[in-house]
TrEMBL record:
Keywords: Amino-acid transport, ATP-binding, Cell membrane, Membrane, Nucleotide-binding, Translocase, Transport
InterPro entries noted in UniProt: AAA+_ATPase (IPR003593), ABC_transporter-like_ATP-bd (IPR003439), ABC_transporter-like_CS (IPR017871), ACT-like_dom_sf (IPR045865), MetN_ABC (IPR041701), MetN_ABC_transporter-like (IPR050086), NIL_domain (IPR018449), P-loop_NTPase (IPR027417)
PANTHER family cross-referenced by the UniProt entry: AMINO ACID IMPORT ATP-BINDING PROTEIN, METHIONINE IMPORT ATP-BINDING PROTEIN METN
CC annotations in GO: plasma membrane
Record's protein name: ABC transporter related protein
Annotated source species: Halanaerobium praevalens (strain ATCC 33744 / DSM 2228 / GSL)
Amino acid sequence: MIKIKNLSKNYVVKQGIIKAIDGLNLEIEAGEIFGMIGPSGAGKSTLIRMLNLLEQPSSGSININGTDLTELSSSNLRAARQKIGMIFQHFNLLTSRTVLKNVEFPLEIAGVKKNKRRKKAKKLLALVGLADRLDHYPAQLSGGQKQRVGIARALANEPDVLLSDEATSSLDPESTKATLELLAKIRDEMNLTIILITHEMEVIKEVCDRVGVLESGKIIESGSILDIFANPQKDLTKKFISSVIDFELPQRIIKYLHQKRPGKLIRISFLGEKTHAPYISDLVKHYSVDANILYGNIDEIQAVPFGTLILDLEGKLTKIEASIDYLRSQDLRVEVLEDV
Ligand SMILES: Nc1ncnc2c1ncn2[C@@H]1O[C@H](COP(=O)(O)OP(=O)(O)OP(=O)(O)O)[C@@H](O)[C@H]1O
């Protein structure tokens, strides 16, 4: 388990002090894939560099499996760092070494004997699907393959934690998907805890269990992927979500809202099995309310259906209100859009 308490990082510059990370608290369970998303300058890189103490915090603590990294002597910190793997946006492979020798590198540093490290590196390269590329050089590989070498190298010392710093940001969508699938597979097989930093919500949606939204060095919102997608609170979170699913109201509907008309316009968000239930026919049958579907979409978040429906409800106001209460009683999220 990772426990981050009151973590801050200040950079002193000519113009004053930049609070890159500002009193951040976070707990991440073992075996979890935690995504941290934020705009440029939010503090993502600073945070991830502090998690293995490549960057010294100004204050606060980082506790991994019971050990506070900020209190370790430099030799103990070196040992602790071996249990924290890291992968990077630009892969950071050694260009003059073969794929096999790149993966052997951290084992060499850890003093592992040649036969043993060779065997281990081959096993890891088989795990990431590169058993046939051992003698290739990084320049002979695609971006996705380079990142797989990076992942194999990061796993060499059998880490408990894997830090991913924008690891898919330089990859095309197909390689991104394959890399994320690989991360999920190694998490399952090795019970790794993965902290994944990104500015792309698609990445979070694809693979993370939970997400934290970072803005100006603070986590402004966090929760399970399904909760955050179904019920985002902050504007920044909504903005990230709308980059992957239709979250904002279409212009056509905003115009419609400005026209005077009877009835109420509502937005229903569905999650999981609820997408299959016959709620609309219930409104018509039991509440004598007409439901005109103006807009709808169904997406999937990690194989769970997630949908939005915008309905124009017409009928007696008391009946409309009762029908909204009914929908809410079914654990659906219902927003009345009248004042949008
Ligand atoms: N070494 C440094 N010296 C001074 N200021 C820094 C330093 N590193 C980062 N900063 C500042 O700290 C803030 C957070 O930067 P950081 O690189 O962590 O953000 P980020 O979320 O990773 O951004 P990006 O997505 O653009 O990489 C920014 O205002 C940045 O200018």
